[in-house]
Amino acid sequence: MKAAGIGALAVALRGQDPAHAAASVKSLVFDVFGTVVDWRGSIIEEGKAWGNTKGISVDWARFADHWRDGYMPSMNKVRKGEMPWTNLDHLHRALLEDLLQEFHIEGLSEEEKDHWNRVWHRLKPWPDSVAGLTRLKKKYTIAPLSNGNVALLTDMAKQAGIPWDLILSAELARHYKPDREAYLTAVSLLELKPKEVMMCAAHSIDLIAARDCGLRTGFIHRPDEFGSMRRADEANPFDFDVVSTDMLDLASKLGA
Predict the structure, then answer these.
(1) DSSP characters over the chain
(2) What is the pLDDT, as a whole number, of residue 22?
(3) Residues whose CB falls within 8 Å of the CB of residue 181, separated by 6 or more in sequence, listed in order
(4) Given this model, what pLDDT does residue 221 score?
(5) Is the dihedral angle over the CA atoms 222, 223, 227, 233 positive or is it negative?
(6) What is the C-alpha separation between 48 and 51, in angstroms, rounded?
(7) Dihedral of CA 105/224/210/256: which sign?
């Protein structure tokens, strides 16, 4: 076998061996929306209950999808300097004003709007998330690395029982993922090297950006994130350092 072929085989074998990939890893950081929590299902469920009490009848699945659709464009305005640094709670609140008009929801007080905006603080975890993270916590330092702001992530963890060791957020870098600063600030705050941190996410763009910064990568498949509206990201065994079917599978593959 030629040397080049041997090298390619070695890379492939490393991709097949999660234990090898994780040998230097000391901390796992996680995308949250879609990876740890079911943002879409949570908003639909709470929207229906809230709508019943307020006499509001709308397509809550469509409402949730439209709210999420504004997520990346609003962050891009911050990223490009078209807006000053604005945390995700405030971006969500601005998007909500447009949604209320689009869906003809009227007569809400500012307090009611603020409560509904904080639905993002009350998102529920996927059924395997807490159990999987609890296992991983025994072996690694675990934290979110989300575009959600610190207050949002803290509230969510307390209400959902998510067992983070600490809260990391793009807010701490004042750069939204996939900007390099978001990943490297988290690594710096942990006082680790990039190869000692594994970014775990259900979204390939997040993992590719983290890998470009030198972090290890763990893919978690979330086929139901977008319901039937959009196909969730998938990954082949060699695409990332670890490819898992859910949080429990990730824990098993990392020996936790």
Answers:
(1) --HHHHHHHHHHHHHH-HHHHTTT--EEEE--BTTTB-HHHHHHHHHHHHHHHHT----HHHHHHHHHHTHHHHHHHHHTTSS----HHHHHHHHHHHHHHHTT-----HHHHHHHHGGGGSPPBPTTHHHHHHHHHTTSEEEEEESS-HHHHHHHHHHHT---SS-EEHHHHT--TTSHHHHHHHHHHTT--GGGEEEEES-HHHHHHHHHTT-EEEEE--TTTTTTSSPPP---TTTSSEEESSHHHHHHHTT-
(2) 77
(3) 173, 174, 175
(4) 98
(5) positive
(6) 5
(7) positive
Of 118, 131, 143, 133, which Cα lies nearest the Cα of 50? Answer: 118
All structural domains of the chain, each given as residue ranges with its CATH number in brackets, are 23-38+124-253 (3.40.50.1000), 39-121 (1.10.150.240)
CA distances from 77 to 71, 88, 94, 108, 163 (A): 10, 12, 13, 28, 32
Please say whether the beta carbons of 201 and 30 come within 8 A: yes
Separation of alpha carbons 14 and 7, rounded Å? 11
Strands 27-30 and 141-146: parallel
CB burial of residue 60 (10 Å; 0-12, 13-18, 19+): buried
Specify the pTM.
0.91
Average pLDDT over every residue of 176-187: 97
Q: Is the pLDDT of residue 9 over 90?
A: no
Neighbours of 136 (CB within 10 A): 23
Q: Amino acid identity, residue 168? A: L
For residue range 18-43, what is the model confidence (pLDDT) as tens digits? 667 778 999 999 999 999 999 999 99
